[in-house]
Specification:
elongated, 6-stranded parallel beta sheet, 8 helices, 2 domains, alpha/beta
Length: 215
């Protein structure tokens, strides 16, 4: 049976890759540098999804620090780079990408992670060969939850918005898809924060990535 979309745009962290522990490590290394208290992975996971600057801002606010985030960011990005390849692919992700690619579906990644960290991680986890376009937090003037990055990919792919699907795990992904007027699928295993997945208007909520192939 033919897949109903010509283009699928995936979020990265919490959708394709479980990177929470790696991201938490980079945050805590930065907090230690500034002689601030550290936090467990569960707490830091709640701050993921809005880009690296917001992430470290949340951490420093939690620690009660009034440090200038512009001064914090260079060191944080060093630690982020040190741990960037530690994320692991969720079960069935690589196989799903391979299956969609074999069916002629165009694939893209749109994430609020900086672009320089995306390609090496996808390469390390065996996904890069299937991805046609990559858009990160610093690729365009706007990022998720704006729909601009998604529409940029749709235009590059030369497909109609009605033939494109967003797959993500968070409110940012949902809002970006709605803004771009794309259908979207949400995964139940990522970093949804307070998002009510069952009532978020997704075409479907899936528990494992291979279920995407059943659309």
């Amino acid at each position: 049976m033919a897949f109903p979309y010509s283009l699928v745009i995936f979020d990265l962290d919490g959708t394709l890759v479980d990177s929470a522990a790696a991201i938490a490590d980079s945050v805590n290394r930065t907090l230690v540098d500034w002689k601030l208290p550290t936090y467990d992975t569960a707490r830091i996971t709640g701050w993921i999804g809005e880009g690296s600057r917001k992430l470290i801002t949340y951490a420093f606010e939690a620690a009660g620090s009034k440090a200038d985030i512009d001064e914090v960011m260079p060191g944080f990005l060093v630690h982020y780079g040190e741990t960037a390849l530690d994320g692991t692919a969720y079960e069935g992700v690589v196989e799903t990408l391979s299956a969609l690619h074999a069916r002629g579906v165009k694939l893209a990644v749109c994430t609020n992670k900086n672009e320089e960290f995306i390609r090496p991680l996808l390469q390390e986890r065996g996904m890069l060969q299937y991805i046609d376009w990559i858009v990160g937090a610093n690729t365009l003037p706007e990022r998720k939850p704006s729909g601009v990055p998604l529409l940029h990919i749709v235009k590059e792919a030369g497909v109609a918005p009605a033939r494109a699907l967003m797959v993500g795990d968070s409110e940012s992904d949902m809002l970006a898809a709605r803004d771009a007027k794309l259908d979207y699928v949400l995964v139940s295993y990522g970093y949804p924060k307070s998002l009510d997945l069952k009532n978020a208007g997704a075409r479907v909520v899936i528990d494992r990535m291979p279920q995407l192939l059943d659309l």
